[in-house]
Amino acid sequence: MISLDDDLLASNPLRENTVEHRIALPSIMVIFGATGDLTQRKLLPALYSLASDQPPLPASFTVVGVARRPWSTEEFRQKMEDGVKKYARAAYDEELWKTFSAGIFYEQVEFNDINAYRHLAETLTQLNQERGAMGNRIFYLATPPSYYSDIVRNLGAAGLASDSPQNDGQGWNRLIVEKPFGYDKATAKALNAELGEVFNEDQIYRIDHYLGKETVQNILVLRFGNYIFEPIWNRQYIDHVQITVAENIGVEGRGGYYEDSGALRDMMQNHLMQLLTLTAMEPPTGFSANSVRDEKVKVLHAIKPMDTSTLLKNTVRAQYAAGITSTGKYVPGYLEETGVAKQSKTETFVSAKVEIDNWRWAEVPFYLRTGKRLPKRVTEIAIQFKRPPFSLFRKSGAEELQPNILSLRIQPNEGISLKFGAKSPGQAMRIHAVNMDFQYGSSFGAEPPEAYERLLLDAMLGDSTLFTRRDETETAWELVDSIKAVWENFDSDTPMQSYEPGTWGPQAADKLIETDGRFWRRL
Ligand code: NDP
Ligand code: BG6
């Protein structure tokens, strides 16, 4: 157990972002796709929790939900209230909801109809005056990605992207774009170009909600807010790294979306790449958006390109089969899910071995795996260190010696633990592995806020550090594109494996790592 130490907080490089500095200016957030799942489950609950925080969002903060359904503002408020009650971190408070919901509005907009945007512009002008939003606007694209270009073009045509005339021209316009960002590198590039015609890069916030998770940000604090880890954070001491993002759920009614996406595009291209870059990056020169993002992009560029035979050897794809979960429930296989083609070649599990070709990481494998219907929901980065060069205790039970592992638990049970060998009590020199544990909940006495809370507030504050930069989104596609191409072109050499629900994927995934004399961690 590790307890909270004030000295540790004082050396926190994120200190400049502590709560006393995080007061947002009034603004209007226009959510495109407001009748959808993301808005009700994540966005409004996060905004409500921010409104309940200290300091709270400004009382004049306003939300305008925009979608196709002919909902009234009252109906929209009702649905959002249901979402807040069910999903918000902050407890539901009737008084707070009354004040907060007075700033929530709905407008029916067909995304392709330019006239609807002209009407929206009038609504925003009026709300800005009534609620004192200082001409500040954030447009949030929570829609199917196929609409991103149209919406942005129409925002531009309706004059909504340029500086607002209110507040003496001081008002700002920002754009938040949900994932997936493109379908591959070429489409990501094209989308970036389209957004760039209407918004400047510093107005664009490409979201990857993993970056909003406290424990993901803590990777930076652990590495660069402490002195003891960096000297050993390299190929001399580290044997390999395992990154696991496991989910126990299936595609949960999102079969239509998932068919075009698969684990590779849905998880690997974004969430796993973020975890990889934060783990592998060099220390940035400062905690500014560009310094951090520069270093992350360098890691992406350093990922060792793999030729066809290496890609065939180093990647595994699989789909979950029908079966009984550990809770005794029957679940359908991926091919039986609604919206999924009977002959689908979309993977629900992927594992890969990659290397980073630079001075720090040469020849240190990074094993990545992600999948749905695995035994549990767990995200972890495990840094496995090399064994001692000389086994001093060989005669006295050295076979029990296990490598040191530093595991960063992103979720759940957020925390960090270090595994090391300790002498077990008694006359004999016996060594057992023990864990030194830090847990967020018990050390800080509070659960971390939801990722979307952090990111929405950052966008309001104009801090893009935890958002993906243009070149980063494009480069992050390169590995995924190369894997996808090999899977498509050498279909029979990379057969789609199958795995039982509630297992850690197919045997081929075990083989991928065991061939190197290593093993997946049992989580
Ligand atoms: P949904 O399918 O639930 O919602 C789509 C929204 O878009 C609805 O509000 C729908 O309005 C609206 N819409 C679609 N077509 C039109 C149109 N022609 N004109 C006007 N409105 C339209 O999607 P999600 O909320 O699940 O996802 C939104 C985005 O967020 C996607 O990019 C997704 O990848 C991303 N995302 C979602 C996550 C999640 O957990 N849901 C997690 C991470 C990212 P209506 O229903 O009224 O027609
Ligand atoms: C989303 C994916 O980006 O992340 C989903 O589209 C996945 O398929 C989700 O379930 C996982 O997020 P979290 O925060 O629950 O790990």
Summary keywords:
binds 6-O-phosphono-beta-D-glucopyranose; disordered N terminus; 17 strands; about 525 residues; 9-stranded mixed beta sheet; binds NADPH dihydro-nicotinamide-adenine-dinucleotide phosphate
Quick structural summary:
By secondary structure, the chain is an alpha/beta fold. The protein is 36% helix and 19% strand.
Give the number of helices.
16
Instruction: Output mean pLDDT.
Output: 92
Overall geometric form: globular
Number of DSSP strand runs: 17
Query: What strand line-up does the widest sheet have?
Result: 16-15-14-13-7-12-11-8-17
Bound molecules: NADPH dihydro-nicotinamide-adenine-dinucleotide phosphate, 6-O-phosphono-beta-D-glucopyranose
pLDDT < 50 stretches:
1-20
How is the topology of this model organized?
Blueprint: H1 6-10, E1 28-32, H2 37-52, E2 62-67, H3 73-87, H4 94-101, E3 104-108, H5 114-131, E4 137-141, H6 148-157, E5 173-177, H7 185-198, E6 204-206, H8 214-224, E7 238-246, H9 255-259, H10 262-280, H11 289-302, H12 308-314, E8 315-320, E9 323-324, E10 330-331, E11 349-355, E12 365-371, E13 378-385, E14 405-411, E15 415-423, E16 431-439, H13 440-444, H14 451-461, H15 470-489, E17 497-499, H16 507-514
Parallel strand pairs: 1-2, 1-4, 2-3, 4-5, 5-6, 7-12, 8-17
Antiparallel strand pairs: 7-13, 8-11, 9-10, 11-12, 13-14, 14-15, 15-16
The structure holds NADPH dihydro-nicotinamide-adenine-dinucleotide phosphate (NDP) and 6-O-phosphono-beta-D-glucopyranose.
Residues 33-38, 67-69, 109-111, 142-145, 147, 178-180 line the site of NADPH dihydro-nicotinamide-adenine-dinucleotide phosphate (NDP).
